[in-house]
Design a protein that fits this description.
By secondary structure, this protein is mainly β. It has one domain (50-220): Porin, CATH 2.40.160. The chain is built from one helix and eight strands.
Amino acid sequence: MRLALTLGISCCVALAATRALAEEAPKIDLRVEEQAPPVQRSYHVHDGFYLRVNLGVGALGNDYDLGPGSAESHGGSLALDVLVGGTPSKGLALGGALLNEAGVSHSVEVRGRSLGDTNVSFSLLGPFVDGFFDPKGGFHMGAAVGFAALAVEDLSGEDETDTLTGFGGAAWAGYDAWVADEWAIGGLVRAGGAITKKSDDAGDITASTFSLGLMLSVLHH
């Protein structure tokens, strides 16, 4: 009887001690902390502010409707473009473009007969879109449309410059290689065209313009 009582008391004491130790032991937290979202790479990505400057050479040609007759001029050209905008979606830039070309000593011909040389300048001002197929890559294509102006010296046979205005557009394709976090250098091929007109007491002049150029391009994007 005493032995059984002693064993019972011992079991109760051992059980109480075990419970006390279990309550005092530190609990292990098996919960996994939620991971923070990955940091998106902001360099070598086509987003944010967009600035492109192009410089190159090419060919510039014009066909003129002079009313009673027609003429044409053609020759080499120097081109300078400035495009400024933003990026509403990664890899897609929108903004405003100013495209300029100038040709010196362009040959003027009427029915295949040379009438001398003239200096020509062509400008296009308007909105543009430039898209990269890969927001982190270099290949891109773009276009611009807007107000066009063509200035031609001595076209009407008088010692003056005829300025024609109208509507035009341009399209390009090229590749840019990253040289810094937000800077890239590359090249592009650009083609453009316009229809411009001048009306005054001396008569109407209408010109059809076409240009093609190979350009070095510097991009901040």
